[in-house]
Specification:
Penicillin-binding protein 2a (Domain 2), 23 helices, Beta-lactamase, six-stranded antiparallel β-sheet, single chain, about 650 residues, alpha+beta
Length: about 650
């Protein structure tokens, strides 16, 4: 009885499986069958989406390139492929590849079997020599006279045949791109088996090299990533985004090609209609961008005319909206020639992957650390002076600032005030020539606060390959003091932008963004949400003190006249000492200073944040350098433009 029940169960399962395959999952298996028995090809490349600025100005577009392709069909013979190559050779003006001629000559001449002696064939039969050796002998024995007997048509056919068989058999092979209108129409008219014509596309940059490195590059699928792209439905000859914005937004920019079934008579039936890529609308304003580049270049040239600027060659600036994190303009420019005949290189990507010591601009985060741990409070006063630690030289402000409170410490940029905070954080009270014995935990208090502002952490900008600066791993006591005034860890200009925008927005840290929208015509596919990454762990009353101090700095402090046109701006300057190796012998031999500025305007309702960084702008040898403070002039130039034009 049990035996019959078991047989019945097996029979029921069998019938159920047949029912499932035929009626439930039948479409899946039908597709597999069709894929095995039919040939499908993709049509012309879909143009990539354009890249536009915030006002709809097209920054990156496409140019159509007429291209001829070959796709190997199932069961096609060598003889048929030779005929296809000859047909194309009669149409296309293709450059002859001499390296392809021997292979073609062999095909036309009995595979070159007559070039092998009977004795050599005998050795081959006896496995004394292998097929690789036989093929080597054949090619060695093809003479120049043999190849010279090939006609021009044969040589063109040989070149085309080699292209038809290059790479994997299932790949679509590019035969010739940028063909003439006549060649293009003739290929279409001849309806050659396996041959298709496509309008492929190349990127056009409407503003030359401006932002080209930020846009990123496009090109062939990297070998190491081909499997991943194939799984996504790409063809191996597709053009994809390789870096920066083109890579970040590849899924939206790529577009989708038409899919055709190849019929028995070599005609095509449309199976799936494609579409062009979606447009990427950036937060950037091209007019502000061009002005920022111009201002930076002019001031690099002006600075190079001054003394002691031997090692100054590059400057960076970012302008954006602190309330959203949107970047309106960004530029890194490097002088690559003598300033008398200046030529510049765009180094915009350094904004996210090159870091610098930035000096006193970090003092907003430093004093925030003091507020958080009770080292100072609102209105805490002290008389500016110098600090002397055991076996460490005197550490002072740039001048005696008299009696100062927390606001004056920002506006007048007191080092002493920050040193006292650092000492108090360690649980000590300052005394002359004291041993401080700072711990790793003391450094962590600063760095955790700095990171909450964006200093020492990835900003999460929508660009790949972002890096943070160097975080020091030595915990010497004097280095804690250096950290508090921006003379130890290093930060990228983009970190500075996030930092000052966080201050401007009263403690709300947002990721900087270049993408404003993804659009398909007028339809919005994706829109930036301006998400808050974190908020600063301080009461608003303390964050307001930072803004007041920055406001005073632009009125009668170190940042006076850095921002033009706006009422009640706010800013903070920074000077950082650097020691560089000027002759590449591994020995640091020259001291330079780098200058930075961060700010926003208006103070009470911030509309713009700005960052300027000028690494190694002058050699520090004790001379008066007030005339080379070019971050001020860069900031003045771009803020005046923003005030008058936006």
């Amino acid at each position: 009885m049990k035996k019959y029940i078991f047989i019945a169960l097996v029979f029921i399962i069998f019938l159920g499986r047949i029912f499932y395959i035929n009626y439930i999952d039948g479409s899946k298996y039908q597709k597999i069958l069709l894929d095995k028995t039919n040939t499908y090809i993709y049509g012309s490349s879909a143009p990539r989406g354009r890249i536009l600025d915030r006002n709809g100005v097209v920054l990156v577009d496409n140019k159509g390139i007429k291209t001829v392709y070959y796709t190997k069909l199932k069961g096609i013979t060598t003889t048929e492929e030779i005929e296809i190559a000859k047909s194309l050779a009669n149409i296309l003006n293709i450059k002859i590849n001499e390296d392809s001629l021997k292979e073609y000559w062999l095909i036309l001449n009995n595979n070159g079997d007559d070039l092998i002696t009977e004795e050599e064939w005998q050795k081959y039969e006896e496995r004394v020599i292998d097929s690789q050796k036989i093929n080597e002998l054949k090619r060695e024995r093809i003479t120049d006279d043999d190849l010279n007997k090939l006609s021009t048509l044969d040589k063109k056919s040989a070149t085309i045949y080699a292209l038809m068989n290059k790479g994997y058999s299932y790949e679509k092979k590019e035969i010739l791109k940028n063909v003439s209108d006549l060649e293009y129409s003739q290929v279409i008219d001849h309806n050659i088996k396996g041959v298709t014509t496509e309008l492929s596309f190349e990127r056009v940059y409407n503003y030359g090299d401006t932002l080209k490195d930020i846009f990123g590059s496009v090109g062939s699928i990297p070998e190491e990533e081909k499997d991943e792209y194939l799984k996504k439905g790409y063809e191996l000859n597709d053009i994809v985004g390789l870096s920066y914005l083109e890579l970040t937004y590849e899924d939206y920019l790529k577009g989708e090609k038409d899919l055709y079934k190849v019929n028995d008579d070599n005609t095509l039936t449309l199976v799936k209609e494609g579409h062009k890529g979606y447009d990427l609308v950036l937060s950037l304003d091209i007019n502000a961008q061009l002005e920022l580049e111009k201002v930076i270049k002019e001031n690099i040239v002006a600075a190079k005319k001054r003394k002691y600027t031997d090692y100054f060659s590059e400057a960076y600036s970012i302008v954006g909206d602190p309330k959203t994190g949107e970047i309106i303009a960004l530029s890194g420019q490097k002088l690559i020639t003598d300033y008398h005949n200046p030529e510049f290189q765009n180094v915009n990507t350094n904004l996210i992957n090159s870091a610098f010591t930035v000096g006193s601009v970090v003092k907003l985060a430093s004093i925030s650390t003091g507020y958080k741990y009770g080292a100072v409070d609102i209105g805490t006063k002290m008389k500016d002076a110098c600090v002397k630690l055991y076996q460490v030289p005197l550490k002072c402000s740039y001048k005696d600032l008299g009696v100062i409170d927390d606001i004056n410490a920002i506006s007048k940029s007191s080092n002493y005030y920050q040193f006292q905070i650092a000492i108090n954080l360690t649980g000590n009270k300052y005394s002359y020539n004291m041993k401080l014995d700072a711990s790793e935990d003391d450094f962590a208090k600063y760095r955790n606060m700095f990171k909450s502002y964006g200093l020492g952490s990835l900003t999460q900008i929508d660009l790949p390959n972002e890096k943070i600066g160097i975080i020091g791993n030595n915990y010497a006591s004097d280095l804690l003091l250096n950290l508090s005034i921006g003379q130890y860890d290093t930060y990228t200009p983009m970190e500075l932008f996030q930092y000052v925008s966080t201050v401007a927005s009263l403690g709300e840290r947002r990721a900087p963004q270049l993408m404003k929208q993804i659009k398909n015509g007028d339809e919005i596919i994706l829109e930036n949400q301006y998400n808050i990454l974190n908020t600063i762990d301080l009461e608003d009353k303390y964050l307001e003190r930072l803004k007041i101090g920055m406001n005073l700095a632009t009125i009668n402090g170190t940042a006076r006249n850095y921002i033009l046109g706006f009422n009640n701006p706010a800013g903070k300057t920074g000077t950082a000492e650097n020691y560089i190796d000027t002759n590449n012998d591994g020995v640091v031999d020259t001291k330079t200073n780098s200058l930075s500025f961060i700010g926003f305007a208006p103070y009470d309702d911030p509309k713009y944040s700005i960052v300027v960084t000028t690494p190694n702008i002058y050699i520090d040898n004790g001379t008066d350098f007030t005339k080379v403070y070019y971050p001020r002039y860069i900031s003045q130039g771009i803020t005046k433009f923003l005030f008058e034009n936006m």
